[in-house]
């Protein structure tokens, strides 16, 4: 029994010593942590203070300035002792402050955690600058709002460059619009000219052709051989002029808008009639061949427009085969299309020239083609008419080997309803 009390005292002493050691250790750890926190806080403060390109400062929950860095002083012009304690609406334009913009920024940041915006801000001297602003809500561990962190950057120069770019783009848009208006006016003038010229010149051309017929029939006296040759040349030229006037009128009508009378047609018959008509006008040097299937090739198209397109393709083959040769017209069904190929062995073209071919007045002029009459309207009209039917025209060509034009229009339905 005598040994019990000393043992108990030693146990108590050991416990006290252990607690003392633990407390000392915790105190040392707490002091070290506090030191680390102070060091970290000092480093952060120095970092924030050292940033000069950004205004970084804190606000209380009501929006009053509680801290201020060198960047804020440089950008906004206030020293810390001049601005701390004042409301941050000081930095807004009066009209923006009156409209509640500062309060709106705080509300959004409190509700969403962050608010970003760009806008005009005011320096101490009253000058304005374009600012990029970020407001971040600061909350404690319990989620209670403790204030806001605000970062502002002066991006006036970037704004100026953007405005200059937008202004340049606006000027370019205005120029393009003016150019488009001028082009539209020129198109209207061109259409009016084509319409007027084609109508006004038809009468004198008809009169010339009438007198040429009288000369050929001898009603105006007998012609010798040279006279007949001259009349023949003039008749050919008058025919070309009359064809040109017709195409000019067609272009004017096309640009004003034309109606389409879609009908069920046998493509073989339309192609055959076109070949027969052009064969009768071409010289003996050109040999025409029509290749068509035994079965009908039913298509839906406007009869006049389809015939005009084919006539133009065939006349083009004759015109650009000045030495004559074979002109082959093939008709075939290639669902969903009915197709007509017009192939010649004439002058041909370079592949790079083909895009220019279907433009209005898009003649391809070379030493070989320059003497050939034409205004570059026939192929343009042909493709436009083909497209009005829902089809198209394509071309393959090689210089010195001739050209093959393919016209496509939709096949008619089998039941004949079109």
Plain-language structure description:
The protein has ten helices and eleven strands. It has helices at 4-50, 70-76, 80-83, 94-98, 101-112, 156-217, 225-256, 267-281, 303-319, 378-388, and strands spanning 54-59, 114-122, 128-139, 145-154, 263-266, 286-291, 298-301, 325-334, 337-344, 392-398, 402-410. The strands form three sheets. A five-stranded mixed beta sheet has the order 6-8-9-11-10, with helices on one face.
Question: How is the topology of this model organized?
Answer:
Blueprint: H1 4-50, E1 54-59, H2 70-76, H3 80-83, H4 94-98, H5 101-112, E2 114-122, E3 128-139, E4 145-154, H6 156-217, H7 225-256, E5 263-266, H8 267-281, E6 286-291, E7 298-301, H9 303-319, E8 325-334, E9 337-344, H10 378-388, E10 392-398, E11 402-410
Parallel strand pairs: 6-8
Antiparallel strand pairs: 1-4, 2-3, 3-4, 5-7, 8-9, 9-11, 10-11
Helix pairs in contact: 6-7, 8-9, 9-10
Short account of what is shown:
The protein has 418 residues and is an alpha+beta fold.
Low-confidence stretches: 37-48
Number of helices: 10
| CATH level-4 homologous superfamily of the largest domain | Histidine kinase-like ATPase, C-terminal domain
CATH fold descriptor of the largest domain: Heat Shock Protein 90
CATH class membership of the largest domain: Alpha Beta
Using the 3D structure, state the CATH architecture of the largest domain: 2-Layer Sandwich
How many E strands? 11
Which structural category do the helix and sheet elements fall into?
Answer: alpha+beta
- What is the gyration radius calculated from CA atoms? 46 Å
Shape label: elongated
Strand content: 15-25%
Distance between the termini: 126 Å
Write down the overall mean pLDDT: 82
- As for the number of domains, it is 3
